[in-house]
Design goal:
Layout lengths: L1 E2 L6 E2 L12 H4 L8 E3 L5 E3 L6 E2 L2 H7 L19 E6 L7 E6 L8 H12 L6 E2 L1 E7 L2 E7 L6 H6 L8 H20 L13 E3 L5 E4 L22 H6 L4 H17 L5 H9 L3 H4 L10 H14 L10 H9 L9 H5 L6 H4 L7 H7 L3 H11 L18 H18 L3 H14 L5 H13 L3 H14 L4 H13 L3 H17 L1
Parallel strand pairs: 5-9, 8-12
Antiparallel strand pairs: 1-2, 3-4, 6-7, 7-10, 9-10, 11-12
C-alpha cells in the first residue's frame, strides 16, 4: 500500500510506490484542493495552497527565467552552495514561489530526496513558509516553497535602514518561531538544520514564518550544520549530529539576536548574563521601549535555551507558554508594528564606498589598522561618555589614566600582549569609558589570534559610542577572522552607511 502524492491518503491500486496516482477525492475537482493549515490555537484555517506535487524541470525553468541570476534571492547570492530563486508559476493564481536548487552532490540518493520532500510537504501551518513541491530529474534536485515577499529577520534586525524592529515585533517573532517549532515537533519533524535569522522570513502581511527548507536534511548522514562554530550547539561539536535539543539551543541564539540587535556569540552573551550586565546585552535602539521585567524574562528564557546540557533545555511547548505571557500587543497587526515600505531590489543591492579604515578592515590589513588607530589617537572619544561619576582626579582616576598610558606605549611599540594587559587594567578600573581603548584592545586581540575577544571589544566600543563607524568596521574584521564572511560584509556596509550619515 502506498500514499497518494496529491492528498496523502492511502491507495492500494498500484504496486509501484513511485507512481503518482490520485485517489477519488482528488479527482472530484480539476483544480488542486487547498490544504488545511493549523493556526496556533489548533483550529483549521482554509488557505489557498495547492497540494504537494512533483514539478517538471521545464516548469521551474520557465518560472525562474531559466534560473536567471536576476532572480537569485539566497543570502550568498549565486555563489551559495544551494541557490534560492524567486519564480512565478504559470497557473491560475500566478503564484510566486521560492525554488531551492541543490548542488549535485547534496542528494545522490533520489529515493531519499523524494521521501524527505514528501514528508516535509505534508506539513501545513501558517507559521511556516510551506513546501509546495519538488523536482527530481537527472542530476537536478529542487524544492518549491511559498515565496515570502518581505525579506528576512536578518535584514530587519541587523541591517535596517529607516527604523529598528520594535520590541513588540521582536517578541512576536520569538513566539511565532517557537510555535512553528512546536508544530513541527508535534508532527514528528523536531529537527531543524542550521536555524538562524536568515531562516525566518516575513510574508506579505509582515508575519514572521519559518522556512521549510531547514526541515530537509542536506546530506545522507544528517550531519548538516553550517553555522559558524561560535554559534554551534555544544553537543554538535562532540557528535557532528543535530538532535531536537540542538534546535532549542539555536532558538536561544535567535533570542539573543532579538535582544541585542546584533549576532552575539552565546559564550559572550552568557558571560554578560552571569554578570547581570543586561544593559550591554540589550539593543540601545530599544531604550524605553520595554519594561525591565519583560527584558529580564526574555533573558531568562534565552539562558534556559542555551544550557550546556541538552536535557536541561526546555521543549518548544514550554517556550511557547513563556513567550505567550510576554505578548502585550497581540491585537496589533504585524503590518502596523513593522511600519515598513516595500524594499526595492535597487535599494537592497545599493553599494557604498568604504573609507580607508573600512578598506583596511575589509582586507584584514592589521598593520594598516594599527597605523590608523595610532594616528587618530583619542579624538574619537570626544563626545563619548568618558566618566561614570563626578569623581575627578582621585587616586582611582589617576590609576586608570596611568594604565591607559602604559597601554598606549605598548600599543605604539607593537607589544600587543603588554597592551592588552594595560588596557584591561584601565577597563577593569571602571572610572572611565573609552571606545578608543576598546578599539585598540580589539586590534591587539586580533594580532594575538583571539577573534572572539576582539569581537566582544568591538561591540563594546559600539555601545560606548553608537555613532562611531570604526566600531562597526572592527566588528567586520573580527567576523572575517571567525570565518563569518557574509556577516562581515554586511557589517562593512553598515559602517559605510553610518559614515555617510554622520
Amino acid at each position: 500500500m502506498g500514499a497518494c502524492y496529491s492528498c496523502y491518503s492511502c491507495y492500494s491500486c498500484c504496486t509501484c510506490s513511485l507512481f503518482p496516482i490520485c485517489c477519488s477525492r482528488c479527482l472530484k475537482s480539476k483544480q488542486p484542493r487547498s490544504s488545511e493549515l493549523e493556526n496556533c490555537n489548533g483550529e483549521k484555517d482554509e488557505l489557498k495552497l495547492p497540494c504537494f506535487k512533483e514539478y517538471k524541470l521545464d516548469e521551474l525553468k520557465a518560472a525562474t527565467g531559466g534560473f536567471s541570476v536576476e532572480n537569485v534571492v539566497s543570502e550568498h547570492g549565486e555563489k551559495a552552495p544551494n541557490v534560492v530563486y524567486k519564480g512565478k508559476l504559470d497557473d491560475d493564481d500566478d503564484r510566486l514561489i521560492a525554488v531551492k536548487r541543490f548542488n549535485k552532490s547534496a542528494w545522490p540518493d533520489t529515493r531519499q530526496f523524494l521521501d524527505e520532500a514528501r514528508t516535509v510537504g505534508q506539513l501545513r501551518n501558517q507559521r511556516l513558509a510551506n513546501l509546495l513541491g519538488c523536482c527530481c530529474e537527472g542530476d537536478e534536485r529542487l524544492l518549491v516553497a511559498e515565496f515570502m515577499s518581505n525579506e528576512t529577520l536578518s535584514k530587519h534586525l541587523f541591517h535596517w535602514e529607516s527604523q529598528p524592529l520594535k520590541w513588540a515585533m521582536r517578541l512576536r517573532v520569538a513566539l511565532y518561531l517557537a510555535q512553528a517549532l512546536e508544530y513541527c515537533s508535534n508532527k514528528g519533524r523536531s529537527l531543524y538544520h542550521d536555524l538562524n535569522a536568515y531562516r525566518i522570513l516575513f510574508d506579505q502581511d509582515c508575519n514572521p514564518r519559518l522556512s521549510c527548507f531547514g526541515l530537509m536534511k542536506n546530506s545522507r548522514d544528517g550531519k548538516s550544520y553550517s553555522t559558524n562554530l561560535a554559534f554551534t550547539p555544544p553537543e554538535y561539536m562532540k557528535t557532528g549530529r543535530v538532535i531536537a535539543e540542538s534546535v532549542i539551543y539555536s532558538f536561544g541564539t535567535i533570542l539573543l539576536d532579538l535582544l541585542s540587535g546584533k549576532h552575539i556569540p552565546p559564550s559572550h552573551a552568557l558571560d554578560l548574563i552571569r554578570e547581570k550586565n543586561f544593559q550591554m546585552l540589550t539593543d540601545s535602539c530599544l531604550e524605553g521601549d520595554f519594561s525591565n521585567d519583560d527584558g529580564a524574562e526574555l533573558v531568562k528564557i534565552a539562558s534556559r535555551c542555551l544550557q550546556y546540557e541538552p536535557r536541561e533545555r526546555p521543549n518548544a511547548k514550554s517556550v511557547v507558554t513563556s513567550l505567550t505571557a510576554l505578548q502585550k500587543q497581540a491585537e496589533v497587526s504585524s503590518l502596523v508594528l513593522m511600519e515598513i515600505t516595500q524594499i526595492t531590489p535597487a535599494e537592497s543591492t545599493k553599494q557604498t564606498d568604504l573609507s580607508p579604515f573600512g578598506e583596511a578592515c575589509s582586507r584584514m590589513d592589521l598593520t594598516a589598522i594599527h597605523e590608523m588607530l595610532e594616528k587618530v589617537g583619542y579624538k574619537d572619544d570626544e563626545g563619548a561618555a568618558t566618566e561614570l561619576s563626578f569623581q575627578m582626579w582621585t587616586n582611582q582616576l589617576q590609576d586608570a589614566l596611568n594604565g591607559r598610558k602604559r597601554g598606549d606605549t605598548a600599543f605604539k611599540a607593537k607589544d600587543y600582549t603588554a597592551a592588552i594587559e594595560s588596557y584591561t587594567s584601565f577597563i577593569d578600573n571602571g572610572t572611565m569609558i573609552s571606545p578608543t581603548v576598546y578599539a585598540r584592545r580589539c586590534l591587539c586581540y586580533l594580532m594575538n589570534n583571539k577573534a572572539q575577544e576582539a569581537l566582544g571589544d568591538a561591540m563594546q566600543a559600539q555601545v560606548a559610542s553608537p555613532n562611531w563607524s570604526t566600531a562597526l568596521y572592527l566588528q567586520a574584521a573580527a567576523l572575517f577572522s571567525l570565518g563569518m564572511e557574509n556577516d562581515a560584509q554586511e557589517m562593512l556596509k553598515d559602517g559605510s552607511l553610518l559614515e555617510v550619515k554622520t
